[in-house]
Amino acid sequence: MPETVYIGPYRPQLVEPERFELLVEGNRIIDAKLELGYMHRGIEKLFTTRTYMQNLALAERICGICSGIHTLCYAQTVERLMGIDVPERAKYLRCIYMELERLHSHYLWFGILAHSLHEHEAFLKIMGERERVQDLLEYLTGNRMNYLINTIGGVRRDIRPEKAEKIRRILKDLKPLSDYIMSLLDDNGAFTKKTKGVGVLPRDRALDVGAVGPTLRGSGIASDIRKEDPYAAYDKLDFEVIVERDGDVRAKALVRARETYESMKIIEQALDNLPPGDIAVKPSEPRVGEEVGRTEAPRGELVYYIRSNGTNIPERVKVRTPSYANNFAILEMLRGERLENARTVIESIDPCFACTDRVTIVDAKTGRRRIITLK
Amino acid sequence: MGKISVYRFLSAGCNGCDVEILECLVPRYKLADLDVEVVERPEEANVLILTGGVNIKGKEELLKIYEAINPPRIVIAVGNCALTKEIFDKGYPMVGPPDQLIPVNYYVPGCPPRPQAIVKAVADILGVKIEETEDYWLAPEGFRGKHEFDSEKCMGCGACAQICTADAIDVIDGPDKRIIRVNYGHCSFCAFCQDECPTQALRLTREYHLLTSDRQTARVANEVNLVGCSVCGGVFFPQKQIDWALKRIVEEKVPAYKDFSSDILSAMMICTKCRREIGSIKRAKKLLANLSERARKL
Ligand code: SF4
Ligand code: SF4
Predict the structure, then answer these.
(1) Ligand 1: does its nearest atom lie under 6 Å from the Cβ of B86?
(2) Whether residue B87 has its Cβ less than 6 Å from ligand 2
């Protein structure tokens, strides 16, 4: 007889508290539903109560992990409304900062994955080494997260030669971390054993549910906004869109692991070719009208829609985050999966700090509760 | 209190603080040395760490979890959302900050606080010292930490309050003084105030260890004198700002206006209400005519 299993919002604890309702028969998940709202802060409404400049800080707090790409996507959309051309140097700097963000975000994702797979040593190693990126971002921008480096018209801090040297040094130090992660994903690697064949999202289903980013690329589709609709200086930088075919959690992990090398490649090229000049121009008045902007966040396509009535306060801001799109992919991946893999599947898309590994099962018919342990 | 077992609760934040808390588990931050563990169930915990400003959906969960923590409970609010709801203060689903719902013992300001700040806060609460020999205990040059006023330079114009992204700066006018107050427990540490200040009087420092048991103390303030209107005597403007504006006009913008310094100054000393009176308008018109004639001659 099917039973209902609840995961989250706080037991186990997902980083963004969400509640999953799973219908389970035996050990198989036959259906999954998702309830959101524990993180709701009314941000889209708040956007319409502040100036375009002030909204930068709000945009980056939609998600502290990919905060930079939110300000970039927002700023680029506003720049279009204002008819501003950003200096070339700023475009390159934006690529550098955003790829550093992709690095820390991908490494964090691996840290969380290790945590959920009970690979404690790997967790400590990845999170420990990841601190190099955080130290670097703090040194470059003044904060480890929510660094507010992008502004309307450019960036707020320059990268002078001595800073460039430090970036190069740290990238060199980070290569072994990426190599280590790749080794965990080898045929015999610790991650591979626990993620191969788990949470498979076939190519056509990935398209149907509208998956984005590494989740989509792990199902064999080469989609990346940096290539499809290039922004900043991405059209002048050489990098590869990483694709894996298997659609399982391991494939998504491999996409991310291989992407860390591409990010390093992008940063090095941008440093080598950094054009001289200003890092920002002054914002101007926005025209009456609307604009849509998109960028490739670490988790996939991020979309901003902004409508202006010509004042210094936007009339409407709509944000479509990649994790929102990917939530539907989680449900798809959960259906047919074994119950004990549920957490890995959920975490393969969104980080989750899983502070408890227990869920409550409520018998759908009798309402009787029993506790089980998720591995 | 023996072993510290921490349970973490988040509602309506950005995750930034939660990542930093997780990062505290890394050996270099020495949290394990303090005999602190992070547990998976509230029933196993005696310390509750809160992040986020709590929304209507999180409230019920928070109350339940608080009850489940083992007494004597220590509750630590980490990050400005958990202090004051920060930038989400006016968000319609917000019902926090958490200390409006449950008792909170300590506050760790920041957005997010560095892991160093969180670990040092925990050490302080436990009354132990940690070795801080490594570089990373110091915040780097250019770090955006607690604010500092240069009271010589601050003229009380309030430009910082205007640009502030998180409504963190209050301008409070008394009978003869104006207070500019930065509530850094409500601040996003964007540093726009620092960029905007016309006299470089407000600066974000490298100070990041800001633990407090009373969030009302998470403030930095500066006081300036206000002057009265030369016509009605009503208090209206910071003296220093008038001096600054006059200096800018006659020294930087149009040196040729210098001869009219005292006329310009007396025009500036009239409050907005009195400026609308016939006599003042006449005087102002005459002054403007003189100034434009001077400009023409140049
Ligand atoms: S205090 Fe800042 S970093 Fe922490 S949850 Fe709130 S917005 Fe995010
Ligand atoms: S740094 Fe300054 S402008 Fe930014 S939120 Fe804090 S007080 Fe406001």
Answers:
(1) yes
(2) no
| Structural domains in chain B plus CATH codes | 3-137 (3.40.50.12280), 147-208+215-225 (3.30.70.3270), 229-296 (no CATH)
What is the 8-class DSSP label of residue B114?
A: P
What is the pTM for the complete model shown? 0.92
Q: Is the ipTM of this complex over 0.90?
A: yes
B117 C-alpha vs ligand 1 centroid, how far in Å? 14
* pLDDT in the model for residue A349: 65
Q: Evaluate whether A159 touches A139 at the Cβ level (below 8 Å).
A: no
Where are the domains positioned within chain A? Answer: 3-370
Alpha carbon nearest to ligand 2 atom 4, residue: B190
Predicted confidence (pLDDT) at residue A375 exceeds the cutoff of 60: no
Give B81's strand partners. Answer: none
Q: Establish if B18 touches chain A: CB-CB under 8 angstroms.
A: yes
Q: From CA B63, how far away is CA A272, in angstroms rounded?
A: 54
CB pairs under 8 A between A and B: 167
Fold of the domain spanning A3-370: Cytochrome-c3 Hydrogenase; chain B (1.10.645)
The Cα A155–Cα A164 span in angstroms is 16
At A352 the pLDDT is 38
Specify the pairing of strand B47-51 against strand B74-78.
parallel
Query: How far is B154 from chain A, CA to nearest CA, in Å?
Result: 22
Nearest CA among A229, A300, A274 for reference residue A80? A229
Which residue is it, tokens 């929304």? B55
| Cβ-based contacts of A54 with chain B (< 8 Å) | 163-165, 192
